[in-house]
Design brief:
Shape: globular
Largest sheet: 9 strands, antiparallel
Radius of gyration: 18 Å
Strand content: 35-45%
Strand order of the largest sheet: 6-7-8-9-22-18-17-12-15
Number of strands: 22
Distance between the termini: 40 Å
Number of helices: 2
Bound molecules: 6-O-phosphono-beta-D-glucopyranose
Length: 292
């Protein structure tokens, strides 16, 4: 198992170090002229990104757990190889095993613009999975899935880069880019609904899976005087989530009064957009996040 000491010896990259984070879990810490950021080996979980000249972009719950076997609340959980509850096993963890697996760092280097790129990998079920993150003036994350060694059948999976964005107040932000996209409304009996033709605004619990879309989204936050752009490839679903009051109160690792501070825009392949992975192939889901 990689330790803080072994990681520091193996990856001597200026602007990058490893240390024990919350709960004693190992994290990589990036501090360069172009960006600061952090990623835990537990879940390959990015917990912060702050491009130079801007406020932090990702939201973290102050009630998050940092424990082996438990997901971290906020940042960018990796949902894989299924999204939400398991289709047939109610005892299986929501959003799959990736976000609670211990990942191994395989590469770390300085990028052309002076940021830091890290790659981590793990095995999940019968898949080999690699996660690459570039902490720079933009945040770029790619989840690449291949059949694990010895696997001889095609396999299907779902994935999501379940990104929590920090906002001034969710009641005063809007999301554009999905006006023409139909969606499954998980707060209305998982009904499939037609495109609304309008920007998304938040007036209550929102849990929507937009299908068959590779659209770029814009998160407009006048209170922070910023717009966050989310571009993607290898992803056909976009999930938009805010738990609002009652659901926040039900979640033990989410503060009762934190819901106005966040919104999730998730780069995903779920439900009818799940990926059929043929032998000798791989699939990459990529998201690029920019602040303007
Ligand atoms: C969202 C789902 O992606 O994640 C929601 O659409 C879910 O239904 C939310 O509540 C958080 O999930 P979890 O397992 O991290 O509490």
């Amino acid at each position: 198992m990689q330790t803080v000491l072994s990681l520091c010896k193996q990856f001597k990259v200026p602007g990058l170090h490893f240390e024990a984070g919350h709960g004693g879990l190992t994290k990589a810490v990036v501090a360069t002229n172009v960006a600061a950021g952090e990623i835990y080996l537990h879940g390959a979980h990015v917990t912060s990104w702050q491009p130079a000249g801007h406020e932090p972009v990702l939201w973290m719950s102050r009630s998050s757990l940092f424990q082996p076997g438990k997901p971290i609340r906020g940042g960018v959980p990796i949902c894989f190889p299924w999204f939400g509850p398991h289709a047939s096993d109610p005892s299986a963890p929501a959003h799959g095993f990736a976000r609670t697996a211990l990942w191994e760092v395989t590469e770390a280097q300085t990028t052309v613009e002076g940021g830091i790129s890290l790659s981590l990998q793990t095995r999940i079920d019968s898949f080999s999975v690699r996660f690459t993150v570039e902490f720079g003036s933009v945040l770029q994350m790619t989840l690449t899935t291949e059949p694990g060694p010895g696997i001889s059948v095609d396999q299907r999976f779902e994935d999501a880069l379940h990104t929590y964005f920090s906002v001034s107040d969710v009641r005063n932000v809007s999301i554009t880019g999905l006006e023409q996209v139909r969606y499954i409304d998980k707060v209305d009996g998982a009904l499939e609904k037609p495109a609304t033709g309008a920007a998304i605004e938040f007036t209550g619990e929102t849990d929507r899976v937009y299908l068959k879309t590779d659209s770029e989204c814009h998160l407009h936050d006048p209170g922070r005087n910023r717009t966050i752009t989310i571009s993607k490839s290898g992803s056909q679903s976009t999930v938009v989530w805010n738990p609002w009051i009652a659901k926040s109160a039900r979640m033990p690792d989410f503060g009762d009064h934190e819901w106005p501070e966040m919104v999730c825009i998730e780069t995903a392949n779920v439900g009818s957009d799940s990926i059929a992975l043929a032998l000798n192939t791989s699939h990459s889901t990529t998201v690029v996040i920019r602040v303007q």
